[in-house]
Design brief:
There is one protein chain. By secondary structure, the protein is mostly helical. The chain has 24 helices and no strands. The relative contact order is 0.03.
Length: 445
């Protein structure tokens, strides 16, 4: 039977309409609930297929549609698709401008520069907005932003206010950060008793990572004299509670005989267990054991493999070991690799990494590795962050490499003045370099 195009078109329209009515006859809210279950089961793509009809269903309230867009955005985040996630989060806010969960997620994206240009000031404002809407988790992010000066000037009091609000809602990471806010890393006048109290609250709330931090406090002598025996005890407790990173610190203690009897086999077992758990810091420890033959037969090939694995995971110490090893080889290829790893280490922006890269660029005996202009840039950034004697020493070396010996002499005097009287050996090294600059000679290593 022949059906005209007009009739066929009408039949298709009726079929589509019936399908649409069938979809809308179903409660699309069930689709959203089903999507939540699928996301929890890591079936994100299937979850989005359930959310698709919900996003266009006419009977949803603005709040429900905002939730549907948020869930789709969350599913994109789970699939490491931050651009798509950001678009859906923004759509969610179009339907509910006060969706605090979405506001926080957008803040996290802007803080990290994921799916958008990094904007820490905007991120902080979003954290604050979500926190003002009563979202405890947002107070945690707001507190950390103030604690580390991200998006605004560092403000410990503001950080503590926000973190306390989150901690009252049993946010254990907020408790850990509150504890840290009373330590020497963040304040000139630390209060270790208050730090310990917050760590113990976090522990009581189910966060065993607090044990590791308490162990560090004993190791650093924050309660008075360093107590490595107690420190190791806390590391062991943390490991027993499932804190895998504690294995690395325990292994180091056994490798060096710090707080426990030296035991290379025990160190090897702990490092190996941590490596199996994917803890990158363990790769450095394993490399060290094989490099020096501690508890194992010395094997430089295996040592280098472990260092390379650590460096690929952005472990700073592993990169520096590779720099040292490559510089020890007298080939242009090795020197290029040394420069590459030093440069990569500096990308983390840490003052020590910048300083080490600048030192290589300013003082290498290999002309092809030196770059005075870049050395000055990196050394200046390190000194701006931490104007310590070693970093000032590097800055002076960078000026000397550029032939600006007057400035090198001035900076080197500053470096020497920053040295404590007890550091006689270091003072002698700095004074030796000063003599070179006074003779208009750059320093070479």
């Amino acid at each position: 039977m022949h059906i005209s195009k007009t009739i066929l078109k009408l039949l298709l329209s009726i079929t589509a309409l019936v399908g649409a009515i069938a979809v809308h006859a179903l409660d699309v809210r069930d689709f959203i609930d089903r999507a939540v279950t699928l996301i929890e089961d890591h079936q994100t793509e299937l979850a989005r297929s359930y959310l698709a009809p919900a996003l266009i269903a006419p009977r949803l309230s603005a709040g429900e549609r905002s939730r549907a867009y948020y869930l789709q955005g969350f599913s994109f985040m789970a699939d490491n698709m931050p651009v798509s996630a950001r678009k859906d989060f923004n759509r969610a806010l179009e339907f509910n401008p006060n969706n605090a969960v979405v506001i926080l997620e957008l803040g996290i994206l802007h803080a990290a520069g994921r799916g958008t240009v990094q904007d820490e000031a905007l991120a902080l404002s979003l954290f604050e907005r979500a926190a003002n809407l009563g979202y405890a988790r947002a107070n945690f992010y707001l507190g950390r932003a103030y604690m580390y000066g991200r998006g605004a000037e560092k403000n410990i009091e503001a950080a503590r206010t926000a973190l306390t609000a989150a901690a009252k809602e049993e946010h254990t990471f907020a408790m850990l950060n509150l504890a840290s806010s009373y330590r020497i890393q963040h304040v000139a006048n630390p209060q270790p008793d208050l730090a310990l109290a917050w760590y113990e609250k976090a522990l009581a709330a189910g966060e065993p990572g607090a044990l590791l931090s308490i162990g560090f406090m004993h190791a650093n002598g924050e309660f008075g004299t360093p107590d490595m025996v107690r420190s190791v005890g806390y590391f062991q407790r943390a490991l027993d509670e499932g804190v895998q990173t504690a294995a690395v610190h325990l292994a180091y203690a056994y490798m060096t005989g710090t707080g426990v009897k030296e035991d290379y086999k025990r160190a090897l077992a702990l490092y190996t267990g941590a490596a199996d758990a994917g803890i990158a810091a363990s790769y450095v420890g394993l490399g060290h054991l094989f490099e020096y033959g501690l508890g194992v037969k010395k094997n430089m090939v295996t040592a280098r493999q472990w260092y390379e694995k650590g460096a690929s995971a952005d472990e700073y110490d592993a990169m520096q070991r590779l720099v040292s090893l490559h510089l020890g080889e007298d080939t242009s290829e090795d020197r290029a690799l040394a420069l590459r790893w030093s440069r990569r280490a500096a990308t983390n922006g840490m003052a020590q990494s910048l300083n080490d890269y600048a030192w290589l660029l300013a003082t290498s005996k290999f002309e092809g590795l030196r770059n005075g202009t870049l050395a000055l840039d990196q050394a200046t950034k390190a000194v701006e962050d931490q104007p310590t004697a070693p970093f000032l020493d590097t800055l002076a070396a960078a000026y000397a490499e550029l032939g600006n010996f007057d400035e090198a002499i001035t900076i080197q005097h500053e470096a020497i003045a920053a040295i404590a009287e007890a550091d006689g050996e270091i003072r002698a090294q700095l004074e030796e370099r000063l003599q070179y600059y006074e003779r208009n000679e750059a320093w070479r290593e």
